[in-house]
Amino acid sequence: MKNKSFLWLMAMVLMLSLFLAACNSEQTEGETPGDGEKTSDNGGSDSDDSSDSGSDGSDDQASDEPTQGGTLTYAIDSEPEGILNMAFYGTATDAEIMGFMVDGLYTFDENLKAEPNLATWETEDNKTFTFKFEEGVKWHNGDELIVDDWIFALETLAHPDYEGPRYANVKTIEGAAAFHEGEADSISGIEKISDYEVKVTFDKARVNNLVNVWSYPMNKKRWEGVPVKDMLGHEFTRTKPIGTGPFKMGKVVPGESYEFIANEDYWKGAPNLDKIIVKVIDNKTVVGALQNGDVDMVPVHPTLGKQVEKMENVDLVTYPGLSYYYVGFKLGVFDNEQKKVVEEKEKYANLKLRQAMYHAINREEWIEAFFQGYGSKVNGPVPSAHWISADESELKDYPYDPEKAKNLLDEAGYVDTNGDGFREDPNGDEFVVKFSHYASSNPTFESRAKALTQYWNQVGLQTELQMIEASLYYDKIEKDSDDIEVFYGGWSTGADPDPSALWKSDMLWNFPRWVNEESDKLLEDAIDIEVVGTDSAKRKKLYSEWQQIVNQELPMLFITELQETQGVNKRVGGVEYDVSGSNNPNEWFIKQ
Amino acid sequence: MLKYALRRILGMIPMLLLISIVAFFLALAMPGDSFSGEIDPNNTDPEYIEEMREKLGYNDPIHEQYFRWVSNFVQGDFGKSTKYQIPVKDLILQRLPNTVMLGVMAMFFTYIFAFSMGIYAGRHPHTKMDHFIGGFNYFLLAIPSYIAGVFAIYFFSFQLGWVPFSGSVDIAVESGTLDYWLSRFYHALMPSLILGALGTATYTQFLRNDIIDNSQKDYVRTARAKGTADSKIYNSHILRNSIIPIVTFLGFDIVQIVNGALITEAIFTYPGLGQLFLTSVNAQDYPTLMTLFVMFSFLVLLGNLIADLLYGIVDPRIRVD
Amino acid sequence: MEVVHNKDTQTQSPTTKPSKSLSPWAMARRKFMRNKLAMISLVYLIILSILSFLAPFITTADVTLVNIGQMSLAPSAEHWFGTDTSGRDVFTRLLYGGRVSLFVGLSCTTIILFIGTLVGSIAGYFGGTVDNLLMRFTDFMLNFPFLVFVIVLNAILFGIVSGLWVLIGVLSILGWGGVARLVRSKILAEKENEYILAAISIGCKPSKVIMKHLLPNVLTTVIVQATILFAGMIVAESGLSYLGFGVPQEVPSWGNMLSASQQPNVLQNMPWVWVPPALILIMTILSINFIGEGIKEALNPKSFR
């Protein structure tokens, strides 16, 4: 054995690796300014100056006028699944990525009302709709968008082999059920009039037929010959998706980063930016990455908001969110076969008990402590940004008032009879509130849940906290498991305001198992075309009444609604957010 | 030797079978399935979930599920990831190169550091430098890799901006070019250093002690007496003897890397198999979980096999067993 | 994690053959006492244990209580190490955390040593089929990647059994293989000695032979192994807790405290929350290692120091 040369070799390799490392970082930093088009974003380059000056403009003043060129780095802090096809995706993260490259038939305005995008529509009776497509819209591969592409998407969703979760978005179309069962070759409710016009008939008139129906076309020509069952794993879904949106998909490093290139032929006008790089980063690196300018835009968790606000190079953009958090009570047991609540649970049946528990919570303090003020308290099940949300004055407020809570408990018969400092139930038996919260590696969950139990302890209700593993948690709640009594949860509302799936007594996801005929009736009426017609004011009125009932009966204690917060580097301009999300990314630009 | 190797390899088969059973039942015993917690009224509905459970065979008898899984597995069909919705095989193939790269680099760093420190300390025992190396090794042993990882991200990525804090490659570079590989290397640098540091202390200490032991052996005295140069004695006589036992540790290295990759990848958001495994546990992605479990166990099995075989080559007495 | 497969064990066994000098224990003790590093470590560990196990008497603050008014406070006279994002006193949690971490480490080590020694000595003593079966089983257990198995098992048991014992149980069940192997090989070697043969030939019961004659001779190996295990288990606990697969979050442990560093604001702006547990953890591991080295040295008849 030649030992000496062996050692030499090792030494050489070590030297070489050090050299390469140095060399590499120099390259990424040195190359960018000269190379006008391709500004690279490397996690290691420690300043964004280099990529800033990358574009060819030579304005010496910063301005708010849109300028052309530049690369924006957009980060997401949870891992995508990589299903880049609107018809199949499952997580919001995937949808966020696709947001740069797809367009829908309609979008939502700042009041979450549908407004025309790729198509306009007309309807007389809310049963039959005529859609007129924008002419001259091009797919990224050059094909023109025609109604066949949308029909193709609808048929894919209704296809017997379809494995995605969106059949519900087409099954309201007449004949979709027959097609889904394989009994028909096409969906009878869809009638193509011309390449740009199509008539869709639903199985019955509903107020929400439009916002419920699937609105994302799929390029039929491109998908031709791909069986539906192979679509999910196909490269058109995974790595080479196309759309009609402002950016085209460039390179993909699955689960890690995605490159978007400006679509110069975008029908609403070419984007200002040359490129957007979407990067997946770990939650714990969000702040550092923003600060160093490694990323330009990233959704920020409320707990980090204050820190981002302090940064000199970053703006914190907040906009109203659509989610709310609640504390629910199990009031019964649901039978999924019979689709009804079959058994009532007595423990929390007393309204005064629930009211007392509501008054015991200092919501302002709690929200400030755990969401850093990026939330506000709610008294009903609809976030205030939504158009159906009842006016504040219509709902009863339950302010923090421990004395009132104690009085209510006394009245209801929950008094301390054995002198242990905690109240017993009206029969004199020991009363322990069992509170459940989901657990994950996020350590703030435990403390925020614990804080809630302390509020109840303070008014004399002995409370036990149980942290349940997140994946198991909703399973247990759904199955009305015996160890779930009082539970913490969150819902987010979609653009379609109908809350039936979560609140009607025959619904599996009505977790409190709350049965109230009046509520059921109101929810049914609100989407009944016979009752409300096309009048959204009338609809809103019904929903307001419904919210008042929920607010009185308290099957849940509504805690807070959250603001969405987004960190945006100051060099980025043209970004606006409202409750429906961001504006079209083709308006974004990099300031000079 | 061949007979011994053959016997050891055949002995792996029942082991693998048992491992597959354990993997299957562990997955079965895990709470919930991939649909648990998938409750979003805007996106899906209960009927769809029930339908998919039926379709994916979650409601079939257990033994049927097991045999279906095993027979598919043997044929190279590992099922479809319930989270990513692509065949597990593809998923693993995507991630494998990253973990392999991480592992190889980590081993490389381990050897480089262990050899340079171990050889130096062995040649100059009880000097200041030797004590320093010894102390340094104690620290390496005592600092858990995840703490080291957190510190590293904090200082080297955020404060100094030297290395990236996540990912495996810079998307801006063209795949296949030199830049691409440099970027890959650059991204794996920090995690592999941390991972490599794990084994360094043990090797260094072993090498040092072995060299000291050897230098007192008769053949070294003979060589000295003959007037052979000191450097030659160390570099050619002693080192050769000290390297041989180290070779047998190769198998254990594989085991270490499997365990270590889990933590390091999680900290650096490095998309390798370790991170994939943690995700699959959290997401109840059983096809992926089971495949990775069997794969990791197989790697350990293989590591032990390699260790035994190498040991058999180095020390023929072992083969009698 | 560097827990189970310790490379040392293979190579050190030939050198630490117990010798039959006069009162070896006394000699070892004297040697150990002269080892400064080991003694300092021992003192540190003893103080740490006393403080930790007496935590309820030392501090008055309720360790689990969330204190909204006092969140994220920097160190002060009132809160020596500040408070964390839940308004809990870091110093108090550090003590309670030590209690949990040391307890987990100690329990796991004890259980592992017990199972490992039992299996190893039975296999080694009886040999033949018993040995074959037990060792095949041990090999089987050793063939699972430790951390991977622990995470899966912990995820399963998390919902069923609650609290610390899940982790202790899981770590113990998966950790004894190495000890069993080691003890077996030592017993195999020891068994061939004439005095054992003599004991068997005069009709001593196997249990007596093992307990009285064999085990004392493998004890030295076991003790050294115990320190390695102890350190390893503490690291395992904290690492798993850091990843979210360890002790439940409501239980204060060093690992759980460290997992707070996953929140960027804590990592960057509140070092008082995560640096103390990190340092204490490192120092604890260091001192256990030093003690282990000290014992090894002391029990090694070849070393004269």
Structure description:
The complex is a heterotrimer of chains A (592), B (321) and C (305). Helices cover 31% and strands 22% of the residues of chain A. Chain A is built from 20 helices and 23 strands. In chain A, the strands form seven sheets. In chain A, strands 11, 12, 15, 16, 17, 18 and 19 form a seven-stranded mixed beta sheet that branches. Chain A has a four-stranded mixed beta sheet with strand order 1-10-9-8, covered by helices on one side. In chain A, a hairpin with a 2-residue loop joins strand 21 and strand 22. The termini of chain A are far apart. Helix content of chain B is 74%, strand content 0%. Chain B contains 13 helices and no strands. Chain B has helices at 2-10, 12-29, 46-55, 62-74, 88-123, 128-142, 145-159, 178-215, 218-225, 230-247, 250-268, 273-282, 286-314. In chain B, helix 5 packs antiparallel against helix 6, helix 5 (88-123) packs across helix 8 and helix 8 packs across helix 10 (230-247). Chain B is globular, with a radius of gyration of 24 Å. Chain C has a domain at 109-305: MetI-like fold. Chain C has helices at 7-12, 24-34, 36-53, 55-58, 90-126, 128-142, 146-158, 164-175, 177-191, 194-201, 206-243, 254-259, 264-269, 271-299. In chain C, helix 3 (36-53) packs across helix 14 and helix 5 packs antiparallel against helix 11. Classes of the chains: A alpha+beta (592), B mainly alpha (321), C mainly alpha (305). Chains in contact: A-B, A-C, B-C. At the A-B interface, helix 1, strand 9, strand 10, helix 10 and helix 16 of A face helix 3, helix 5, helix 7, helix 8 and helix 10 of B. Chain C: Keywords: Cell membrane, Membrane, Transmembrane, Transmembrane helix, Transport. Chain C: Pfam families: BPD_transp_1 (PF00528), OppC_N (PF12911). Chain C: Residues 9-22 have a biased composition (Low complexity). Chain C: Residues 1-22 are annotated as: Disordered.
